[in-house]
Write the structure tokens for this entry.
Amino acid sequence: MRLGVTGMMPGNLDDVDERLARKIAELGFTGVGAHLAGEPQKVSAETCHRAKSILEQQGIRIIQFWGWYDSIITSDEPVRQSGVSTAQEIIRLASLLGADMVGIRPTSLNPRGAWWPHPENDSPATEERLVRSLREITSVCETYGVPIALECHVTSTLNSATAVRRIIEATGSKWIKVNMDPINFIPDLRTAHHTTDLLNELFDVLGSYVAAAHIKDVYVEDRHVVHISETIPGDGIFDFDTFFRRFEETLPEGYGFIEHLPESQIPRANVFVREKLKQLNIPILN
């Protein structure tokens, strides 16, 4: 397994500098996930090459690359097309950065946010639009040599292992993979308290599509009505033994990324992850 981190890269690639690269390298990470904050059409090739060079000097690569785009599941066709074309631009930038993959979120029909729930997010019509959008997005993957990795969540169209596999197979594209983020698939209290069952289902159904993983923990809050929240790895109830073993069996040279933490908490998460991998005799590769 290789270790990476998200949340340390700036949204503006012009802000990547030697100090940042050294800080990431000193934590022992060899890969990063980067989220572009602005419009990909406005980012120059020179900016990409500069950021890539600075990171490479410290032995770091951009493995996962994301950006923002309009809803790709909306029935508003001009908006959907805008989302698809922007996602294609993100793939083009990823090729300039030497990124291994582009993270593609399914978006939402909720106008307040790309990850917020909506009663029609998992309807058959919405699923059909997502399949069409993914086909169109991946039409440029071969041109640039960059696959996409689906970001999934229970609030989205990609809300279960079976739904994700069904949608991937419906596209007929060899360029679609999955980012294994088990916490995002927890829909209820029973699953939160029995993550081993969830993990085995996810790897059994989606194992052949896994491209990388996100490393997070989960806990159930003591307040009404139901609040299931993320936390620092090691502080919650997630079955990391099964998670790391199944990932190692599936993708032994793949990256696991510590995610969704403020920079001040990343070192503590890093220590836990490395100690857990050592306990499980899973080697950390460069």
In short: The longest strand covers residues 61-66. The radius of gyration is 18 Å. Strands lie at 2-6, 31-35, 61-66, 101-104, 148-150, 176-180, 210-215, 217-220, 228-231, 255-258.
